[in-house]
Amino acid sequence: MPIRPLSALTALLHVYIALRLLPALAVLTPAWPLALVALAVSAATIPLPFVSRRGTRERSGNGSVLKWTGLISMGWFSSMFVLTLVRDAGLLLAWLAGAVGGVQVQWATLLPWSALAVLAMATATSAVGFLNARRTAGVKRVEVPIRGLPQALEGFSIAQLSDIHVGPTIRNSYIQRIVDAVNRLGADAIAITGDLVDGSVPELREHIAPLAGLRARHGTFVVTGNHEYYAGAHAWIDELRRLGLKVLLNEHVVLQTRNVRGAQTDEELFESALVLAGVTDFTAGHFDAAHASDPHLALHDAPPLVHTRVLLAHQPRSAPLAAAAGYQLQLSGHTHGGQFFPWNLFVPMQQPFTAGLHRLHDMWVYVSRGTGYWGPPKRFGAPSEITLLTLVPAKA
């Protein structure tokens, strides 16, 4: 949406919040003008990240402050707006209870205290959400039971990073903390399942650079997310490869877990291997027809005797085609687990899974809540994660 209509819309929504809350707060406390000032600051600063992206150089300190202020305001306003709607719905129900059911409603108490509750809850969740978003993501350990898993692959581990969104508020030091945490895990492979960046290569090259320090026995593998295409996917693919990361574009690699010389037969050699495939983002074909996502194509020429197959796919929506193609596990992200209320309620409208480990036919799907965040530095009820997935044999 262009900046001017967006600014006008958010300004009108701020006016709605002010009209619904401020008169009630004025009855309760003489400090109510502070809420008016907060709403005015929020309305004025929300457009700033978009304005500064166009008109301010990335290295400008002023541009960074504008982006931080606007994005924090965006998170606070989101909660204020939703909670104001919830309050109005509750007041409507109370009015109906009084009009139809004869319930005595103490409006003199309900109106001001419910308005204060909206302000307090929005501010508290934004503060807690900020701390949650800015901390280094915790490690979530997940065992994935694979039917018929060869003995050589028992305990094979993949550290998954997803949806880091390096950009206005996620920079070099944030990424370095993630790299250090992942390297301490000693995973066999590292998977980055898309939405790594929110900006161009010249803007973010120095901030993405710590990813070159990721260490795993078989290396680090990356697939594109939708935000890579917004930011210039081809340039980013080149940059990530320059850093030594392996970008999988509807293709696969075969990871051999056993020393080739130690294998007695071809069957042993194949059983000790794992096919790790990666597809472009589910929507990539809209940006570049040559990048249309295709889980079947990603298995082209894969050794048929290597039966353990893992797919990296940014969006959970890739799962039906992946299951049909014969994968045992798909690793995805994209959803952020909703990031903060109420957006977690809308994720199921677009994606089959929101977060965690799920079963689709004969395939497992793991959806990460994301390692960073998008937009407002705010996570509430959907903690960020570095996921360590370990393959284990399924119980009979």
Task: Please supply descriptive tags for the structure shown above.
2 domains; Purple Acid Phosphatase, chain A, domain 2; elongated; membrane; 11 helices; Metallophosphoesterase_sf; alpha/beta; UDP-2,3-diacylglucosamine hydrolase activity; metal-binding
Fraction of residues in H or I helices: 40-55%
Overall SS class: alpha/beta
Q: What is the ordering of alpha helices and beta strands? A: HHHHHEEHEHEHHEEHEEHEEEE
**What do the pLDDT scores average to?**
92
* Portion in beta strands: 15-25%
Outline type: elongated
Number of strands: 12
The residue ranges in which pLDDT falls below 50 over 5 or more consecutive positions are 54-58
Tally of alpha and pi helices: 11
The largest beta-sheet arranges its strands as 1-12-2-3-4-5
As an assembly, this protein is: single chain
CATH architecture tag of the largest domain: 4-Layer Sandwich
CATH superfamily of the largest domain: Metallo-dependent phosphatases
Domains, number? 2
CATH topology of the largest domain: Purple Acid Phosphatase, chain A, domain 2
Rg (CA only): 24 Å
